[in-house]
Amino acid sequence: MTPQAPTPAYRRLSIEERRSQLLDAALSLFAHRAPEDVSLDDVAEAAGVSRPLVYRYFPGGKQQLYEAALGSAAEELRHCFDEPHVGPLLLRLSRALDRYLAFVEQHGTGFSALLQGGSVVETSRTTAIVDGVRRAAAEHILSHLGVVEPGPRLRMTVRMWITAVEAASLIWLDEGRQPPADELRDWLVEQLVALLEVTARRDPQTQTLIQALAGDD
Fold it and tell me: What is the pTM of this model?
């Protein structure tokens, strides 16, 4: 008789591994369907587990699972702007936007539902999670600009640009990912420079910053 290959030993997942598995399954579903269209049964099926097991890890049901998945996605978005402070500023910003647009493309439907709001599972907590990403992105940008204590005009300019990036991303998805991502990235970088130049006409701090950018190779 031909000897049979040994059956791989079953390994029970740790609590963190199981929780991560369920969150990954939920995020994959939210990436292609609006949150209200995803059920716990859908998540259980995607993860290859039973519905009671999902409840064991998320006793608050779908709302708790959605908020946890949103928090996981938000952490990934925060890391998009976590770029080393090495090399020319605009090149650093381009790399950050490359990661951001890759995330947008991967999580298309979920990203749209997240930013456009109106979901039946949207709460003050989910809104706070999204706003936290925006604030973290603004702090990263200001840090790369080398500004320790930004004035109100400069801070507003950066936050306006982040809002414009979000809006452009949503339109980009609606327009079938056109223009190509690299063109959109360059366009968005140019828009930040243009916004800073306009602000510099009224704000000495931003004017000094623009002068520094002009000499940034």
Answer: 0.77
